[in-house]
Amino acid sequence: MIPFSPPRMDDKIIAEVTDTLKSGWITTGPKTKRFEKQLANYAQVPAVLCTSAATTGLELILRWFGVQEGDEVIIPAYTYCATANVVLHCGAKPVMVDCLPDSFNLDPELVKKAITARTKAIIPVDIGGFPADYDALNAIINDTEIQKYFNPNTEEQRNLKRILLLSDAAHSLGAKYQGKSIGSLADITVFSFHAVKNLTTAEGGAIALSLPKPFDNEAIYKWLNILSLHGQSKDALAKTTGNWRYDVVCAGYKANMTDIQASIGLVELERYDSDTLVRRKHIVDAYHAAFCEDKRFEIPVTDTESKQSSYHLYQLQIKDISEGERDEIIQKIFKLDVSVNVHFQPLPLFSYYKNLGYKMQNYPHAWTHYSREISLPVYYDLTDAQVKTVISAVKQAVEKMIGND
Ligand SMILES: *Cc1c(COP(=O)(O)O)cnc(C)c1O
Fold this sequence. Notes:
This protein is of the alpha/beta class and 405 residues long. The chain contains 15 helices and 13 strands. The chain folds into two domains: 11-269, Aspartate Aminotransferase, domain 2, CATH 3.40.640.10; 272-402, Aspartate Aminotransferase, domain 1, CATH 3.90.1150. The strands form three sheets. The chain has a seven-stranded mixed beta sheet with strand order 1-9-8-5-4-2-3, sandwiched between helices. The chain has a three-stranded antiparallel beta sheet with strand order 7-6-11, with no helix packed on it. Helix 12 packs across helix 15 (384-402). The site of pyridoxal-5'-phosphate has 14 residues, from helix 3 and helix 4.
């Protein structure tokens, strides 16, 4: 069976983790701090805070910005549930918008229409690693007419004077938008290092800060560090120097990354551009070549003049099929010993959001993309021979279902 997305765990990672385990320091410490500096350098941002997950990172930022009951946050309907749940945790309302007709990413025109006096943040998602339309989104938040609507409730909101652009970049570390790295394109960008993501620390995430003046990103880093550790004025490492007394300055959260996780991340980041992304692009290019001239398929866009994907997902679509036919094709592919997946079930399909009143028919493009979509395996250890097996399994399954035309 060809798995869908196993992590790349080799001797280099085992050696680095072992080094941490034997070092006498396993929670947040020197390796996490080193990983943060290297991520900031990689994403071209002034500061990065590592967290226990992207989810906790996103929630920390919404809490920091003071998003609360009565507020709205605009998110895509086509995303993983974390994007919505962090908004709900804060007591605010996720306002879902549809994707573009020809892309899995959210439609900026619909974002604009969804803005009200209650909107505090927009969370775009770079689905599959393909960047959202950051120019259009930045133009919206900086539009002086739209800024007049903005209703600040907290000091942070009064300082920003406009809607916060918070990128859910769980898929897109290393992607590029007009030559710039993902991280530097929104006010704040959150990456995920979950086991299935491009760069993994088993579980983990990072907040990349790129806020405009008058914000001091270094100072916000320090505050978020405290907020991610129960509001303690000193972390465990700082207390080891004999300076044991600390204060609790707010009812903070528990969202820190451990040095065990960071040691995996350090190895992963070092080889990310030179090795990981090269291999992922190679696999994606092989899929493109196999499916682009076959009229039954619609291949995902990964590279344009202004955007370059991080090749996180290969979201293949099969034209003119129903949801049920797609599901049957997936069963046939599994019977040929290939694991595939669906990214994503739009949130209004899930019972929880449905019960909150979100209706699938309000997101027609999300429905079309979802109902015809099959994600193919993309990961470092997938060999060229396995890529061929995947391609042949997909083609055979589709042929059995809808024939050859
Ligand atoms: C994986 C994912 C997350 C959550 O990441 P965690 O690190 O598991 O919290 C958030 N948003 C999207 C779009 C994701 O795919």
